[in-house]
Amino acid sequence: MQELPFILVLLSATAHGYWNFLFKRADNKDAFLGLSKLAEPVIYALPFGVAVFKWGLDPVSLWFAGVGTLLSVLNYFCLANSYKRLDLSIAYPISRSSTLFLPFLAFLFFGERIDVVGWASVITVTAGVLVVQLKSFSRSALFGSGVKLNLGLLFAVVAAFTVALYTLWGKEAVRHIHPFIYMYCYTLASCVYFLPSLRRLDRAEVQREWAKNRWSILSVSVLNTLSYVLMLMALNLTKVTYVGALRQVSLVVGVGLGWVVLREAITLPRLVGVILITVGASLTYLAQ
User: Fold this and answer.
1) 56, 118, 211, 273 - which has most CB atoms within 10 Å?
2) What region holds the EamA domain (predicted)?
3) Considering the entire predicted model, what is its pTM?
């Protein structure tokens, strides 16, 4: 993996991990997410105008943004419902484990092949994701009640699959439309979903969430767009599987902040899982 896409994905992962941490701290997650999504097109309106003036916007390419919108909304829906039911240290790694799906989907749709180091990276990252959710390394945890099939876990897995899908779709989209313009268009279109959802909430709850967390909401708006645009730029430069694997570094940020600030427990399996994912993600730098 070349140095430029490697750096771009690391920056993307850091931004993504931090905004997910801010999201987890929200009192009313539906209100927080809805407000942040509505703020995004407002914050980036001027840069979008400049981008269109410089690079242009082909109306025919807007359908790429439409599909991206559907996948993005599905991901946020699953992510929010997972966070309501699981600790950040569990929900975040699983919901970002697109490496479970990316190698096969990337081969199917783009004919991408990865080398031995690349497979070592994917396997190590996936192992880390599986380990990080265990309560312990005891027999009962490994084969019994340690991994429970519940609604929160199912939402997290579906969120991971949608990440793989919109990553693949993003790689195709940026062949036809500038990454920032693509991101802005589907962010703007996603407001069609988030505005009605926000209006269904109790108005006083929404106002309280804004009053308490307005700066976090605005920070999430900025970081979410920044994180995804950086990833889209990297997708133009390297294989989609390596981008997905390296982006798992974001969970180190999420788990670390969950432990330091939210006082979530860091068990031995979670520590080992973070180490495995960090090592696996780092291997992408050597992969061809």
Assistant:
1) 273
2) 7-132, 151-285
3) 0.83
